[in-house]
Amino acid sequence: MRKNKIFSLLAITALLLGLPTSIYADSKSEKENESTNKLSTPTGLSAAPTPGNAAISITVTFDTPVANAASYTVRLYDKEGERLIGQPRTNFTPGGTITSLTSDTSYRVSVQAIAATVNISSSKDREKNKRSQYTNSEESKKVVVKTAVAAAKVVITRASIGTARYVSFATQPQITIQDSRNNTFPTSAVVSASVSTGGTLTGTTTAQAVNGVATFTDLGVDGVFGSTYTITYSVLGFSVSAQVTLSTNYCDSFNGIWTAKTCDNNGSGMIISGNSVVIPTGYILNINGFTNAGTIFINGIISNSGIIDNNGTINISNNGLLSTVTHSTINNNSGGVINNSGQIQSNSVINNHNIINNISGLTDGVFLGSFGRVNNFCPYQWNGPQPTGYGLFSESDCFNITFIGNGLAAVADSSSLLGIPYGSNRTIYINEIDPVNWFLWYALDASGNEIQLNRTTSPISYTFTNVISNQSIELVFLNR
Length: 480
Fold this sequence. Notes:
The chain has 480 residues and is mainly beta. The protein is built from three helices and 43 strands. A seven-stranded parallel β-sheet has the order 16-19-22-25-28-31-34, with no helix packed on it. It has a seven-stranded parallel β-sheet with strand order 17-20-23-26-29-32-35, with no helix packed on it. Strands 18-21-24-27-30-33 form a six-stranded parallel β-sheet, with no helix packed on it. A hairpin with a 5-residue loop joins β39 and β40. The longest helix is centred in the N-terminal third of the chain and has 15 residues.
């Protein structure tokens, strides 16, 4: 039987089986043509770990174009190049990636140029197209590539230091992403912090890693005093935790810039030394009294339920509020200055021994509740409008005494005694220049009659009985 008849039978059989007839060559010339028109093998093949990617992958490149190639197929093998891993990657373009690989593992990669498919249905068509038909190139030589070491864990390389409520840790935590070899994994991923139930994080709760190292800036934790909370740091599916016990009530040793939302002090109060303290706008300080020798800037709210001893300066801004409840006290001591541009709300006692500047633009810049009272002690200054509300505002007659020897003193009256009804009692506050060596012995009226008086201290004051209007008073002091 002739070869062309054998081919016809094979062709009919192939058609019945649904096979493409182009796979059958019926002449030596066609086989020679297939070899002659084979595509060139792509050159310049290289593969490398994909940079900047947490997922394990490689990037494959090669030179293009290959003449008459319709597409390219890349194959991935094990490190010996014997076992094909997965299906061939068809229609692959240079610079493409192969993903879902194992970290720190060697592979081999090849590339092949793929020719266009030509459908030939007859001997006549084959003869017509045999000079234009191309076949796939040989598979290239396999190149070796090793995947990167992947991120494997996250560790705390600098622990937070600080056990105070409301404030940022004195030492901020530093978190490092590492690979399985404990080397820093270079990534710019964002580390997030979270806290266990009952706690609240303060400040910025995320930090972006720089070359695998993330440093927080103002992180802190708030919660119940004496409780322990767990802070968890998470990134790239990994996490690490640390515990913090709130064993320091920051309000009790308050000194510096305060940036917490709420600060509760239920103890004996706090001491503010020579530093400045800032209560930011919208923030609240609930305090059971404090002693101030520095400067307080109230842009938010101070709510006081104890005793405030001010020996420094308290500045209340336009948005600021100093509020005191019943049975609490504000002592503006000698050397103390209160500058009020906002509001003072008092339902208790304000003892002013120095300077209060009420320069608020509010009608109720200083508002006294039903139990509110302002006592001004000499020497004092109250500059600006008096308080509004329902309380009392007490002013005093102040005398400056200068000793002139022989037990006598010259007295300068800072406010007139005119208008005092006969027989009234009058408390006069005296600034004694030398109270250590001298004390007031007695007082005489204009007729030389002794005036009954009672002396009190803190501050020194004398209550004169039966003072006559517009009279002169002679004060006699005794050398101790």
